[in-house]
Amino acid sequence: MSETNKKGWRDNIVLFGALAANLGIAVAKFVAAAITGSSSMLTEGVHSVVDSGNQVLLLYGQRRARRPADAAHPFGYGRELYFWAFVVAILIFAIGAGVSIYEGYLHIIEPAPLSDPLVNYIVLGIAALMEGASWTIAMREFDQTRGELGWWDAIHESKDPAGFMVLFEDSAALIGLVVAAIGVWCSHYFNDPRLDGVASIVIGALLAAVAVLLAREAKGLLIGERADPAVIARARAIVAAHPGIVAVNHVRTVHTAPEMVFAAISADFDDDLSMGAAETLIETIERDLRTALPQLKSIYIRPEKSADAVTF
C-alpha cells in the first residue's frame, strides 16, 4: 500500500468505522421491525440507512476534493467536500427526520398489535455496542484534533466536516437507541402501542435538530471561513519581521479545503526598494510563509501604502 493510500485510510478511519457499523445495524433493525412491527425499530432502521448513505457521500466528497487544481478551478476542488457535507445535513433532515416523524404519526393513528419485545431489546443492545465502538473511534480522532479548545469551539472552528459530522451522527444514534428502547418498554408496560409511535417522533425531532446544526456548520464552510486566528497572527508576524516591510496592512485568509488556505496579504514596502528588490523580497516572504505555515497553499502579496490594519 502506497503512503498516499495509507494516509487516506488513516484520514477516513472514522468514516469507514461508522459505515461498517451502520450497515450491520440497519439490517438487524429492519429484521427486528419486520418480526415485531415496532415503529421505533423501523425508524431506527431508516436512521441507520441514512447514516450509511451519509458516510458514503462524505467518502465520495473527500475523494473528489483531492483532485488537483486545473485551469477551471485554480484553487483546487477542496470545497466539494463542504458541498457534500451540506447535502448530508439535508438528507438527515429530509429523510431521517421526515420518515421518522411520519412513521411515528402513522403508528399513533393506526397502532399495530403488540408482540414479544425480546427481539427488539437484543437488536438494540447489539446496535448500542456497534454504535458505541464507532462513537469511540470518532471521539478519539476528534480529541486529537481539538487541542485545548472546548467541544463546541472545536466544532465551530473545525474545517474538516467529516470528523464532527460522524461524531454528531453517532451521538444522535446512541440517544435514539435509548429513546427506542424506552418506547418499546413503555408500549408494553402500559399496553399502549401508540407510545412506540411517540418514541419514533422524538427520534425524528432529535435528527431534525442535529441536521439543522450540521447544516449551519456546513454552510459556513461552503461560503468560506478564515483560517485559525493563530495562523493569521503568525503570518502577519513573519511578513512584518522582514527588512523592507514598513507595515502589514491586512492578512485575509479563506479555507479552500480542510488543510488548504488561500492568503491575501497587503503590506507597505519601503519606498527605497527597487522593483527588482521588491520582487525578490516577495519571493522570500512567500518561501518563509510556506515553510512556517504549510497549510498556506496559495499566497498573494500586494505592496501598497499603509492603511489601518484589518485582519479577517
Automatic annotation (TrEMBL):
It is found in: Membrane. It is a multi-pass membrane protein. The chain crosses the membrane at residues 12-35, 81-102, 118-138, 172-191, 197-215. The keyword ATP-binding does not apply. InterPro entries: Cation_efflux (IPR002524), Cation_efflux_CTD (IPR027470), Cation_efflux_CTD_sf (IPR036837), Cation_efflux_TM (IPR058533), Cation_efflux_TMD_sf (IPR027469), SLC30A9 (IPR040177). Its main location: membrane. This is Cation diffusion facilitator family transporter. The keyword 4Fe-4S does not apply. Keywords: Membrane, Transmembrane, Transmembrane helix, Transport. Belongs to the cation diffusion facilitator (CDF) transporter (TC 2.A.4) family. It comes from Sphingomonas endophytica. SUPFAM superfamilies: Cation efflux protein cytoplasmic domain-like (SSF160240), Cation efflux protein transmembrane domain-like (SSF161111). Residues 18-222 form the Cation efflux protein transmembrane domain. Residues 229-304 form the Cation efflux protein cytoplasmic domain.
